[in-house]
């Protein structure tokens, strides 16, 4: 939530910062702002409610010169989205500007103390408290910006990634992080910092991922300096090379990032599987599992923690790990996990699934699991993010940057990695027979082509979507492996079309949701010809006999279902555990086109953010 960027170098800072904000807009987009340092030593701060494009309009005709600046795109936590609450927040004298991603928990107490010292506040934000505190410390201690920031942060409880600059000091930006991400890109005579690497890659592929409780000084004429917030001693500056290209961050001819990401799935799944299925499907090689064989042999129980779409992938993972590894698996919302008195021991493996690798609740859950002695395994997409850096081992899904707020290719990548993990650990434990491994692994190796075939439904789904544009409620039903697919289908529709949709286990429908069924509420039923197919047929009949409208996702040639359901979408047959990957694709497209028919902003749906770095 919220994206921050900072720039110091030779270029026009405004251009770099605006371009960076556009890359980070997926993190929040209710207001944006920028602070620039001009050669005359003045601090120019511009803000606008709305998107980065609104900021650009607001700045038209203003002085945007300067080679240093900081900028912010906001997802409101404290205070409504408006110009006053937008960042940068400035100190009382106007001489210090600050951008912040995170939340300051003790801001109330600090605010009262500062007010007693004569400080007045313009905004409702927690961030303004921090910038005022920095000014107060600077003035009372007569110290420089770095020391004032460091001392202030020592008084702060909460999460933050910040960048701070001051008037009359066109050579220094101070940045720091605790529980919110911050990456510093090191170019030739220029430095760019950001909440993730996407604003950086156009300028340099050399980056430093700041660690928690580190503070960095970006100075025009000196190399990057990183220090420990606690000891003030220099910390190692570990320069990594980015594996990301600018092309991955563009729409590549598609109307939206979401559509591009749906259509990219054949390639992203290929990248996800590459090198992991060997000997014609006889073996699955996942280094995270193989390097920790004993953990997977000794384990009593696996607990998977995740949020949102990743939680749906976790439910599928539970099923397949139990099938292949005969290990009991529990799935927890990361946000509930630590408040549910979790009983975790050193015989547990805790798997954290997260596209961004930055979700605050998931991070907090793994911290607790680690403290209780569990072996913690991460399944993430963003390389070098906080979760992979804070786990004992893990696997990247390697699907490339996902920019559309509604997750699509990351979901199919997560399910793919969970399948690989189940097969690999099952082999290690001797709980899955060679025939099953080969059948599933070979089908998984073909899944990129299978998904390519499913994408041919595009036009048919686009047409079908028009029938449902004005529905107010949807029911999504599935059983077994496809109950989570139903949840995910419903979530996609809710997120981007703002239509209410409920995912339900098909057989549970009779215990409540059946009361809702009428001709106005479409029911989407995932009904591949699997072990539960006959039972799902009964559910279709129950809906039809109450006047409901049914769209069934079926395997080819299912004439019986074609007669029963109002509409059928055919997906290729695959082993049962792989049906969620294949069945989720038409549901992504259906949600997409319904949302487009309603003229929604599918890449940036209202109120949502891609990466939720606050509790
Ligand atoms: C937000 C996003 C979802 C995502 C969830 C978990 O709510 O909008 O798309 O599934 O966070 O994010 P993570 O990065 O941990 O998978």
Question: What is the straight-line distance between the termini?
Answer: 10 Å
The strand line-up of the biggest sheet is 3-2-4-1-10-9-11-14
| CATH homologous superfamily placement of the largest domain | Aminohydrolase, N-terminal nucleophile (Ntn) domain
Principal-axes geometry comes out as globular
Give the strand content: 15-25%
How many extended strands? 26
Instruction: Briefly note the structural class of the backbone.
Output: alpha/beta
Measured as a percent range, the helix fraction is 25-40%
Which small-molecule species are bound to the chains here? 6-O-phosphono-alpha-D-glucopyranose
Work out the helix count: 20
- The average pLDDT is 95
**Domains, number:** 3
- Residue stretches low in confidence (pLDDT < 50, at least 5 long) are none
CATH class of the largest domain: Alpha Beta
Please state the CA-atom Rg, rounded to the nearest Å.
Answer: 25 Å
- What can be said about the biggest beta sheet? 8 strands, antiparallel
CATH architecture of the largest domain, by name, is 4-Layer Sandwich
| CATH third-level topology of the largest domain | Glutamine Phosphoribosylpyrophosphate, subunit 1, domain 1
